Structure formats: structure tokens, C-alpha cells
Amino acid sequence: MRSLADIVQSISISRENGLTAAQVQESRSRFGANELTPLPREPLWKKFLEKFDDPIIKILLAATLLSMVVDLFKFDTTYAGISLGLIVTTLVALFATKKTEWLPSGMFVLAVVILGIGLISGHPPIEGIAVMVAVMLATGVAFYSELKSDREFEVLNAQKDALQVKVQRDGVVQTIPLPEVVVGDLVILEMGDEVPADGRLIKATELMIDQSLMTGESEAVKKSVRPDDDTAEGPDQPACLYRGTQVVDGAGQMIVAEVGDRTMIGEIARRLSGDAEPEEGEGDETPATAESRVQQKLTISKAQTPLQEKLTALAELISKVGYIAAVAIFIALVGLGIFRGQIGLSVGFVDNLKAVLDAFVYMVIIIVVAVPEGLPMSVTVSLAMAMRKMTRANSLVRQLVACETIGSATVICSDKTGTLTQNKMVVDRIGVEGKVINRGGAGWPSIVPEKLGPETPNTPAEWIGLNAGANSTANLEEKDGKILTVGNSTEGSLLNWLRENGASYAKLRSDFPVTYQIHFSSDRKRMTTVVPYGSKMLVLVKGAPEVLLEQCKLAANADGSIQELNSDLRGVIQQQLRDAAGDAMRTLAFAHAELDATFPTDEESIHERRHELETRLVFDGFVAIRDPLRPDVKDAVDRCRQAGIEVKMITGDNIETARAIGRDIGLMDSPNAIALTSAEFNALTDDQVKEQLPNLRILARARPLDKFRMVRLLQEQSQVVAMTGDGTNDAPSLKKADVGLSMGIAGTEVAKEASKIVLLDDSFSTIVKAVQWGRSLYENIQRFIQFQLTINVSALLIAFLAPLIGALFGFSDVKPPFTVLQLLWINIIMDTFAAIALCSEPPREELMRAKPKRRDENIVSPSMQSNILITGAFYVVAMLTLLFGMAAGGWFAADPNWSAGQVDGRQASIFFSVYVLFQVWNQINCRSLTPASSGLWGLNQNPTLLAIQAIILAVQILIMSVPFLAAIFLNLKPGSEEAARATLSVVDWLVIFVATSSVLLFGEIVRRIRNSSAKPV
């Protein structure tokens, strides 16, 4: 890390005013921007080859290779021998060189080569061509889906760390994006901030830094200025700060020494990419641990969510059934071969082997269709899509699990300021000398900046003005013609009040520089600053009125004198505070004290005697700050109530203000609704609190520990808790909650880091939208499961029953109803297209009129099970009737030589197309999960579904209209008469289109019947 001397020598920086605009440009050109090189992506070719590493694909390729070689032995032993030699040589080479990871892709290349040999020999293996095309389709679609998902995550990763940094440039405090920080910048740090770059401290007030990202130690470390040691570096050095660490207490200023890849986090990221070696002296364990922490910070975790784990278990269960069914089909096909005389002692070895291999390949394809490997993958795709859409709706998802958990939330614990209100605070009322003055009314005080000094007696309003400017860490910034608050919004309203009166808070801070400061905390409920005041020191305190009134024994008068704060005056002030709180205003009190000349003036000595600072406080008055409610918050709270979600307001405001806000938004409508203060809450045992929780609506003057306890007790009652927070001290409760929601505007970086979702607009209504998106995600995955399992059930039964029924009823020439390529095309429709189509359904408003899903609820609901079985049975009956109608009665035959028991090319085309179009129509059916809804409702709201249906239909028509493609999909010889007859006409397609729509009509009728027979709830 550069020393301060090096930085000053490179750029003539000012420790008071920061860099100039010209110096910023010079620094950026010399030292670069504050951007980290993105973590390396896995090469696309490697990602694509990984798709061949699926066990089923490997078995399928091995069986196909053997089948093609056996085919060649029937026609040309020379070419067959060459092919066999190539296979053996390649396998030996791969195993000898221990390059077994290349085995799947090697088998595919071998299959392509042997395919070429077959074409040269004049005997192309049609089924081999079909399998190769199918494998390419399956791996290509899986590769594309993963690539699309990765791109979504990359976009979200870029948004995840969109940090705003407070810097001083040209003497003005301003906020800039993280990448714009340059070497030499004067960065202002406060509690809750994240350190934006590596740098050296030049000013610190009780500064505590969480360095766990770098060191792994969870305990915060105190940092202090060390002007005598400007060259030392490392997290253990008091004056060194590092990017990504967090300010958990105090404040400070630092000069940026390193940016971008030259920061410590940048060096660790480079090690992750393999571009940098570990530094000398580093052990093996520490860098690896640091690397994992850095990777976790820089990327969104893709660890499996509970829903994915649940679906993986479901997929494994279905897989077992699929494997058993596939083996049963294999046995049935071999038995059928024996029955027909195609397998046996009278048949040659090659023919026997070929017949068994054909049955084996068919078994593997059945497994491909039956095993829902796309189920967990489709959830990942759906989660990525949901994350992107939620971000557009102002909910930035930081952890995948939050997408699904927010939809199950049963309780939302919300802050008030900025979440339920607009966070547009204005000083609306001032209380001084026992009198209340409203904004715009007679006597509204004006501040004369020149009088705010030790030489002139100050009025109470002037004491408040001095306190508001000097005892504050907030700043005002002008952007696009608007005045914005940088820092705490309550302090911002006070600075705006000063600005209205022509007083400059910057001049006040220059005239009264901070000597010592104790920042506001929810435990102390006040902020204290010590500033020089002539020859003495002045203590300025602002905070909760009840706390300051308790501490003060004196009160300021208009003429500068001081009177006793007697019980009468105290009672008047308390009533005024209650009136303001009853009008839903936040109140803030101010006090001061002059320290005697013997009191120490250095920070360290003051810190040792800090308990003496507030012993002789003079009460100056109070302000009442109005923060209007968000116009949509009452409706949002009402929507939560309809959705079975309890809303609890946890606020630092006093109980009267909280009750007034609660009444305005409908929280206190119930006669049993309870509001408690922190003190009352903590006086109750856990069991007593649990008894009160169903009716507890408001917790006032809450501390962070109260939030944590609330979350814990609610979770012990099996509630799914969403908790909002904006402060550094909220981090434990945000982590503890099932879904921690931090504020994107008012929230500290520490709170954001602890949360799972960041509300980009800080609005309560956005939480409600996030709940709706979470519920929609769950429902969309249910739709996909319903669609996929319907195909699983029907395809397995048709594939198993068709040859068996054919054999039993004398249709000896009826072959398995689906070819290898057909089943794999159906699998692509089922696994990929359906996932995109059905998981693109927009959230329905009806979702917010249902109760939250239980954590242990089966994702395949009883209604879905009925839909799957009934629709699956419809498919099986319809398809078997069609198949044997064609075989026995010659339905749709085009071959003039057709004889009973056969299925010619055109009939096979019709059979395949009917089944595929059934799936197109059933996608609409699967939009409905309950008998009370229709798949047709809101169909035009999902253009993605309609587009995918059009794509499937267009591809199917293309396949069955081009003779070569039809031949490949039907296992016919390209160019043959039968292949030419297999194509379908426009009339054929119209008939199939209308006929297959019967599944949609069937689904609607079944839903009506089930709904009418359902018992009223």
C-alpha cells in the first residue's frame, strides 16, 4: 500500500478539501479506476463438453456406438473392423493417458466418425444419425439454458455491489459510484459504511472496523491515526483500511492509497483467477479461506435452495420409477422379439445382438424421458428469471433462497421511517421555552448565523441551530437542481431547516470543529459532540426527548439566561411532545452544557471522562419532524392482511407517534391490537411475549436486540419472518430472519451485506410485490412439474403398453410407438421449452388472496396429482386407440400395399405429431393448478408461452414436412417411397390441430366437474 508521503508526492492533495476535478482526472489516468477485474468464466467449450458428462448420455453414446458397429458387420466386415479398431484404440489411449474426462466427448466424436464410415460404405446407420442429432439437441439446449442462467447471474452480480461513496472534492462532500473513487480521494466514513478502497486514516473518532473479510476474525478492530508510521501495512495496522471491510462504529476520514486490482481484495480475486501467486510467507490455509470469503462477497451464491433440494428428492423418486419402467420395457421388448422370432437360436449372432442393442437403446431413451433431470435445472433458470424481474420491481435479490422464501412469509416486521413513510422529513414544529411554534406561524424562529458564537448570549432556537449543524454527520448535496441528504435523513431535515434560515452548516462545522463525538445508538438514544467554544469546551446533545428530559435539570431562556426545569415546565413540554406524536410526527430534543476551563481538550482524555459530559445539561427545546406516509402503504398493508400475512411495525419512535402511524395505515384496526414499548417488551418473559405475539402490532423505541428477540420468538412459533432494517446494528436480526430486507437508499452497507434482499426504493409496497413474485415463482414451478409429470406418466405407459398389447392381440408388426429421436425431441419440449414457457407466467393478483404455503407442504399438491393422472390417462387412451386403430383398421394409411398389423410412414407421422401437439395444448391446461381456475384465464399476459408454443408447432411442422427430416425422425431410409409418403399435408395439420385441442376441452370440463363437486370451505 502506498504511503501518504508517496501519494502527496504523486498528487498534491489537500487533507481538508480533497482532490480538485483536475487532480481526479490526473489520478485516474495514472493509477486507474476503482474496478476489479471480473472473476474468470469457465471457457464456453469446456462448459459445452461438460454436457456430455451426463451418465445417461454416456450410456446412450456407448450403446449407439456398439449398435452402429454391429450394423456395419451385417454389411461390410472391413469397415466394421476399422470402426471397432478405432473405438478400442481411442479408449485405450484415453485410459492410458488418464484423460477419462474426455471420454464422453470422445465417444461422440467416434460416433460421428463411424457415421461417416457408414455413409462411405453405402449403409448409413439411420438410428445412429437420429441419436447423434438427438444428443446434439439435448446437450445444445442444456448448454444454452445454463449459459442464459449464467448471464442473468452476471447482471445481478454487477448490481449487487453498486456502492455509493462519500468523498470530499473541491471542499464539497459528494457521493460518487464506487468505480469513480481514485487514488488520493478523501473518503468520509461513518458507521454502516463499507470501505471503498485501500487507504490510510487521517482522522478517526472511535472508529471500529469489521475486517472479517480479510482476517476471518468476527470481532471488530479499533482503528486510529498513526502519523509517525506512514509505511506499515496490513489489517493489523491501526491506520490501514482495506476495501470490502465495514465500519461498525464511529467515524473517520481516509486518503485512498490503492484502487481496483491493486487493493488487497483485488489481489485475492486475482489469485482466484490464477493471475497472481500467493505472497511470500502466506500459508496454505489463510489464503484459501480469504479467497472463499472474497468469492462469496463478489458473487451471488448458487448453492441449492430448499426448493431445489426438495425437487432433487422428487426427481430421484421419479427416476427410480423411471428406471424400473425402462427395465420392464426392455424385458418386454426382448420378450416380444423372442415371441416374433427376431431373437433366438435360429437367428444369427449379429442379428440377435442388434435386436438386443436396439431394445437397450430404447430403454436408455425411456430413462432419458422418465428421469426429470431438468427439474432442479429448471428451478435454477426460474430463480434467475425471477431475480431479474424482482430487480426490475425494485427488489434486488442477493441470495437465491430469498426468491422462494419471501413467498412463504407469514410475518413482515417493518421499520417505519422510509418504509411506511416517504422519508421526506421536514421540521414542522419547534418547542422552546414551553411554547410551540408551527411552521409558517407567527414567531417561527429565524437563525442568525453570526450570533451562533460564544460572545453573544444565544436564544434556545439558536442553541438548537448550532446543535443541528455541528452535532451531525449528515451533509447536503445538490444534484440535478435538487438538494439531497447524504447520511441520516432526520439530520438532513435539520440541515435543510438551517439552510432555509440562511445558516451554513459547513461554516458552523468550520467554526466549531469536532473534538470528540459519541455517535447515536439505539441503546443511548442520543448523539453527543464536544466542540471548542471560546476558551472552553461545549457539549451538544440531541436525541429522544424522554431521555434528555430525564437528564436535564435546567432550561434555556430567550434572553440567554438559564432557569430550573421544574415539574410544571417539564409537564408542559411532555404534553407538547405527546401532541406532536399524536399528529404522527417524530420528535427530537436538544441540550447543551459548557465544560469548565479545567476539563481536558484532547480526544483521549475526554474519552476517559466521557461519563461527565452530560451531567450539567441545559434543555434547549425540541423539534417535531413530519414525514408523510407513502400513499400506497395502507393498501399494501391491507393486501398483506388478505394474503394471510401479519404486519408488525418496529420503530425507534416513541409510542404515541407509532400508534398514530399505526392507526393511519390500518395496523390498529383490530380491537385486540397491542402496541408495546421496548421497556414493556423486555419486561415480559419469552412465554408471555409468545402469548401476545398474535395481537402485537407495534413495538416502539425498539432496540436491535428487540428485533432479534422478536424474530427468534416468531420463528419458534413456526412463522416465516421477513424483517426490514437499515442500520448497522440491524445486521444480526437481518441475518436471523428468514428473509432480511435492507434499505437501498437509507440503508447502510453493513445492513445490505447482512440482508438477502435490498429494497431499492425502501418502500413497504415493494416488499408486498416481492411476496407476490415469490409466490408466483413457487406456482410457476408447480405448473412445470405438472406438465412434466404428465408427459412422464403418459410416455412411459404408452411405450410399455403399445408393444405388449400388440403382442397380446396379434399385431406382430407393431413396433415401439416412439423412435429414439422422437422421445428426445419430446424430452426437449418437456425439460426446456416448458420450463421457460410456464415459468414466465406473471404474478396473479389472486395469489395475494391465499394463505402462505407451509414449509413442509408437498409441492405436488393433491389437485396437481389428480390433474396429472386424469390427463395422463386421457393421453394413454387416446394414443393407444389411435395406434391400434391405424394398425387394425388402416386409419390414415397412405401405403397402397398396407396390410393389417402394419403402421406405415404417414400413420407414424400422424401418431408422433398428435402426441407433440397434445403437449402444446396441455401447456395451457397446466397454467391451472386448481379446479376453480381455468388455463385460458389471462393467456394473453404470457407472450413467452404463446411464442414457445408457436416455435414447437413450427418445428414439428418442419420435421414432418421435409422428407429427409421425417425419415430421420421415423427411422426410415431417406429417399425411400415410404419416407416420401410420411410427410403431412396442410389438411392433415388442420385436422391434427383441431383434434388435439380436445385435451384442452377435456381439461376444462374435468375442472368444472371437480369444482362443482368440491365441498364448500
TrEMBL record:
- Asked if Translocase is a keyword of the record, the answer is yes
Residues crossing the lipid bilayer are 56-73, 79-96, 103-120, 126-144, 321-339, 359-386, 789-812, 818-839, 873-894, 945-970, 982-1003
Query: What molecular function terms (GO) are annotated for this protein?
Result: ATP binding; ATP hydrolysis activity; metal ion binding; P-type calcium transporter activity
Provide the protein's localization: Endomembrane system
Q: Which domain of life is it from?
A: Bacteria
List all Acidic residues biased stretches: 276-285
Region ranges (Disordered)? 218-239, 271-292
Q: Where is the composition biased (Basic and acidic residues)?
A: 219-229
In terms of one coarse class, where is the protein primarily found? membrane
User: Could you identify this protein by its name?
Assistant: Cation-transporting P-type ATPase N-terminal domain-containing protein
Q: Which organism is it from?
A: Tuwongella immobilis
| Origin organism lineage | Bacteria, Pseudomonadati, Planctomycetota, Planctomycetia, Gemmatales
